[in-house]
Design goal:
The termini are far apart. The chain contains 23 helices and 13 strands. 51% of the residues lie in helices and 11% in strands. The strands form 3 sheets. It has a 5-stranded mixed beta sheet. The chain is globular, with a radius of gyration of 27 Å. The longest helix has 29 residues. By secondary structure, it is of the alpha+beta class. It has 3 domains: 365 residues, no CATH class; 112 residues, no CATH class; 115 residues.
């Protein structure tokens, strides 16, 4: 049974008895086979859907490596194994079951469970899409069109695809409400689905909650009873799995807040505008317009209320995906277009014409291929997809131990920590910076005790920054911190200064840790007593964004910081951030210019030191600059807006 069963008001028997003018050889063959084998159309749809799912399997592309994404994926696996408390030990938009969206890189039982989950979601998605399109355009057209679309699903595999299944079920219920309102079991199923999503990725769960809740309230025979059933099912599944995963009920508020902070801070801090790819935005707008036209045509015959609800559902899912897709260029845009392709089946037009059925979707597929800039033969490669599924399945069924060991060995070879560093870390609690959580998997002799936001660039807001700072200042702070330099030498992302990522936590690190051993590519820091005094304000300057500000002369010894108030607070910047993404701001220190995350610009941002603070190599603090300039590029939104810069010096013992 697929999640969007019977989006058409006709039952399987009624489909068989449909007028001859709507029949096709494919429909006749399926009806004959169903009659002889006493199988339902739903089961046949499921079988065909699984076949499509196998041919379009989301091919594994995430190998065990030192890169950022594999590191946080392995971090989720480690958090599940160590039963870390989400909201307390871990602050992320993913929850205790977040690891289930990522079967690769393979690291053991968590990856095996993830493979089962991703496969179930992908096969259900393909079966649901096939059923919806078959009911509208016939089996042959459905098979070809869904097969072509599903090759785009590696970009939405896992939790995004799961959220889209909830959407398809909700939208299908709205389309059939007039002939067949939804019942209480529909509400129970949707509630359970949303509850599970709440432990996977909370921002997807929040969007799904709104979509599913609206669908239940507007399509049920008895909306009050159905909403109660929906809520009870949601809470039961969520709380039951929360406790099964070893989570504390008292951590729920902090889990929700941290996940919301990560999600909302993402568009403020992670924007990547590529002026050379403005055409991509135009292509995305065109694909959205095609989908909107299909929604308009499909909803034309619905009652006014159902039509309005359908538009609200589509607007919610498209806007939520748009915010993520347009924030990060490249793969983010591919994810947005893949989502539009997944939404198409629920509004596919009823037709017996190949041209009518395929024209809209052909335009959207062409837009996806153009943005992806990948040869069609590489994208639509069923043989490669089937081989990938076979390899992953064999690893889970036969090579669980060797597969996990191979990943660990590969990581050890890439990191290559020397005996000197390992001797300082073995048997100690260790925080790993700036993002390489996968070190803890490669070297199990380390006791991983991460900062709550375990990749510092993701501490987008003051709340998240303070979580890390409080952890480093508290009794459970790790004995050691391991800093690793990536191959390109960059300790942050997107041209940022790594001292500006989680800036309050960076100050706590400077005050409470000192180097024990250092090399060009790694440093081991050991915890010491707090060696910093209260900060001293040496100047407060009112200025405008983009105007240079001279630092005070004759600064006292200590760590020099600046707190910037007013960044991105003007009305126009807030509106642009809400509907699109935050314009990039920068902090220039003389000739050096670095991207400045808006959410944590209030600092304290470390500019340098007027005394030796004991750090070496890439963590060494230089003398502070003579001037600083804060603001976006000239002519961008926010340039010239009022700012206040507060310069402080933190006295520190050698």
């Amino acid at each position: 049974m697929t999640i969007a069963d019977t989006a058409s008001p006709m039952s399987a028997d009624e489909e068989v008895r449909a007028p001859l003018k709507t029949r096709s050889p494919w429909r006749d063959w399926m009806a004959h086979l169903a009659g002889r084998l006493r199988l339902s159309y739903r089961l046949l749809d499921g079988v065909v859907g699984v076949a499509i799912g196998v041919l379009t399997w989301p091919e594994a592309t995430t190998a065990a490596s030192t890169a950022i994404d594999p590191a946080w994926i392995i971090g989720l696996d480690l958090a599940a194994r160590q039963r870390l408390q989400f909201g307390h030990d871990i602050a992320f938009s993913f929850g205790p079951l977040g690891f289930m969206g990522f079967p690769q890189p393979y690291v053991g039982w968590t990856s095996a469970l993830a493979l089962v989950f991703v496969a179930a979601v992908h096969f259900a998605m393909c079966a649901t899409m096939f059923r919806l399109v078959r009911q509208a355009a016939g089996g042959a057209r459905a098979f070809v069109l869904v097969l072509g679309v599903a090759f785009a699903f590696p970009w939405i595999a896992g939790w995004p695809e799961y959220g889209l299944l909830i959407f398809l079920a909700s939208a299908a219920a709205v389309l059939r409400r007039k002939e067949r309102p939804s019942g209480i079991w529909f509400a129970v199923a949707l509630g359970a689905a949303v509850g599970l999503a709440g432990l996977g990725k909370l921002n997807i769960a929040i969007v799904s909650l709104g979509i599913a809740g609206l669908a239940v309230a507007t399509t049920a025979r008895d909306w009050r009873t159905s909403l109660v059933a929906f809520g009870v099912s949601l809470v039961t599944v969520f709380m039951g799995l929360w406790l099964v995963m070893g989570q504390a009920i008292t951590d729920l508020p902090s889990y929700i807040r941290a996940a919301v902070e990560v999600s909302t801070g993402y568009s403020e801090s992670m924007g990547m505008i590529d002026p050379n790819s403005n055409w991509v935005s135009g292509v995305a707008v065109l694909a959205t317009a095609i989908l909107a036209g299909m929604v308009w045509q499909r909803s034309a015959g619905l009652p006014r209320r159902d039509r309005l609800v359908l538009w609200i559902l589509f607007a919610a899912i498209v806007f939520a995906t748009y915010k993520g897709g347009f924030t990060r260029a490249g793969v983010g845009m591919a994810t947005f277009l893949a989502t539009l392709l997944a939404l198409w089946p629920v509004v596919s037009q009823r037709t017996t014409s190949w041209v009518t059925a395929s024209m809209p979707i052909a335009g959207m597929v062409a837009a996806f291929i153009a943005v992806l800039a990948m040869p069609v033969a590489v994208l639509m490669a069923p043989v490669s997809r089937v081989k990938s599924l076979k390899t992953e399945t064999v690893t889970v069924l036969v090579g669980r131990t060797t597969g996990a060991a191979d990943s660990a060995a590969s990581l050890r070879a890439q990191y290559g920590l020397p005996p000197e560093a390992l001797s300082l870390l073995t048997g100690r609690t260790v925080d790993i910076q700036p993002w390489q959580a996968s070190v803890a998997y490669a070297y199990p002799e380390l006791q991983w005790r991460p900062e709550p936001v375990f990749q510092a660039y993701s501490a987008y807001t003051p709340y998240l920054d303070q979580l890390n700072a409080s952890f480093l200042a508290g009794d459970k702070a790790p004995d050691r911190m391991l800093w690793l330099s990536p191959p390109d030498g960059a300790l942050s992302i997107d041209w940022r200064n790594f001292w500006f990522d989680a800036p309050t936590a960076k100050v706590e690190m400077l005050c409470r840790y000192l180097p024990l051993s250092s090399a060009p590519t790694w440093q081991v820091l050991g915890r010491v007593a707090d060696r910093c005094a209260e900060p001293v304000t040496v100047a407060t300057v009112s200025t405008t964004a983009g105007s240079p500000v001279k630092l005070p002369a004759n600064l006292p010894p200590g760590i020099v910081t600046v707190r910037v108030s007013g960044v991105g607070k003007d009305l126009l910047t807030r509106l642009v951030t809400l509907v699109y993404e935050a314009p990039p701001w920068y902090l220039s220190e003389g000739a050096s210019k670095a991207r400045l995350p808006l959410g944590t610009a209030s600092g304290p941002l470390v500019l340098g030191a007027t005394t030796d603070v004991g750090y070496m190599d890439e963590l060494a603090l230089q003398a502070p600059p003579d001037t600083v300039t804060v603001g976006p590029n000239q002519g961008d939104v926010g340039f010239g807006s009022p700012l206040t810069l507060e310069f402080q010096v933190i006295p520190v013992e050698p």
